Amino acid sequence: MTGVSEGMRAAPATPLRPYLGPYEGYRLVGYGPGLHLGTPAPEVTVVLSLDAPVVITTTSHPDQSEGSWGALASGLATTAVTIAHDGNQHGIQLALTPAGSRALLGVPSAALGAWIVDLGDVLGSDTTELVDRIAAEPLWPRRFAILDEILLRRASGGESSIDPHLQRAWHLLTGPDAPRVTDVAHDVGWSRRHLITRFTAEYGIGPKDAMRVARFDRSKRLQRRSPGMTLAAVAAHCGFADQSHLAREWRSLAGVPPSTWRADEQFPLVQDAEDLQRASSRA
């Protein structure tokens, strides 16, 4: 069955950009029913469904059962979730930085952990306004303008900032040339044990796992951008020791090797550079 994909990818208003990546609006229609793999990423995920609720059949937290959510938030995790769909998906996805979790959701990412929570649990009454106004607006630019309005209002309320030492550690560990945890601890002037304790308390995952998830996510994004690239080349480009190391990390973090993900992933990602450039100019 051949499906149809449309949507828009747009940068948020300039003051929000330290807190989240581009808005990802998507509408996928006419695909075959099945399962979609939601893989680990170094961001807090927020999803607003504009149609049927999102059905999660396998969650990242071992104590959380399957469920469905019309609007959800989820913290950092080291395992994938499984999303059941009928071949149609319509919504907006946001990727919040750890600073964005504090500024926009009002909690550190560790407070969410690997749990999936109803967005209303962290946004309160703003969730109802956000969902109702976006659902009533048919055009992506107007939907994104509503997001800007409500998120800017939340950000202006002030944030409990992340310790600069932890910000520095996050930047180093999730970058493309991540050093050893011991070297990061030395860089920020803490013991290794103190770094691990404080880092995990803020972000919900430890320094080594943050490095692994960020590297995994880079490899996933690279494969989306360059589907013809060999796995050996992906491994070398993203900092894995070799292709076998890449495959082991994919099995650990996604539950499948990258070759299987490539074959099974049927939903395209809405990443129209022209749309992004057009939408960015409005901010």
Q: Which helices and strands appear, and what pairs or packs with what?
A:
Layout: E1 4-10, E2 23-29, E3 34-38, E4 44-49, E5 54-58, E6 67-69, E7 71-74, E8 81-85, E9 89-96, H1 98-105, H2 109-112, E10 116-118, H3 120-123, H4 125-135, H5 140-155, H6 164-173, H7 181-188, H8 192-203, H9 207-225, H10 231-238, H11 243-253, H12 258-264, H13 273-280
Helix pairs in contact: 4-5, 6-7, 9-10
CATH-level-4 superfamily name of the largest domain: Jelly Rolls
Low confidence ranges: 269-283
Order of helices and strands: EEEEEEEEEHHEHHHHHHHHHHH
CATH architecture of the largest domain: Sandwich
| Structural category | alpha+beta
CATH C-level label of the largest domain: Mainly Beta
Rg over CA atoms? 19 Å
Count the strands?
A: 10
Fraction of residues in β-strands: 15-25%
Total helical elements: 13
Biggest sheet: strands, sense, closure?
6 strands, antiparallel
Gross geometry: globular
Number of domains: 2
Strand order of the largest sheet: 1-2-9-4-7-10
CATH topology of the largest domain, what is it called?
Jelly Rolls
Share of helical residues: 40-55%
Q: For the terminal residues, how far apart are their CA atoms?
A: 38 Å
Overview of the molecule:
This protein has 283 residues and is α+β, with helices and mostly antiparallel strands. It has two domains: 4-159, Sandwich (Jelly Rolls); 164-264, Arc Repressor Mutant, subunit A (Orthogonal Bundle), CATH 1.10.10. The protein has 13 helices and ten strands. The chain has helices at residues 98-105, 109-112, 120-123, 125-135, 140-155, 164-173, 181-188, 192-203, 207-225, 231-238, 243-253, 258-264, 273-280, and strands at residues 4-10, 23-29, 34-38, 44-49, 54-58, 67-69, 71-74, 81-85, 89-96, 116-118. The strands form two sheets. Strands 1-2-9-4-7-10 form a six-stranded antiparallel beta sheet. A four-stranded antiparallel beta sheet has the order 3-8-5-6, with no helix packed on it. A hairpin with an 8-residue loop joins β5 (54-58) and β6 (67-69). The chain is globular, with a radius of gyration of 19 Å. It starts with a strand and ends with a helix. Residues 269-283 have low confidence and may be disordered.
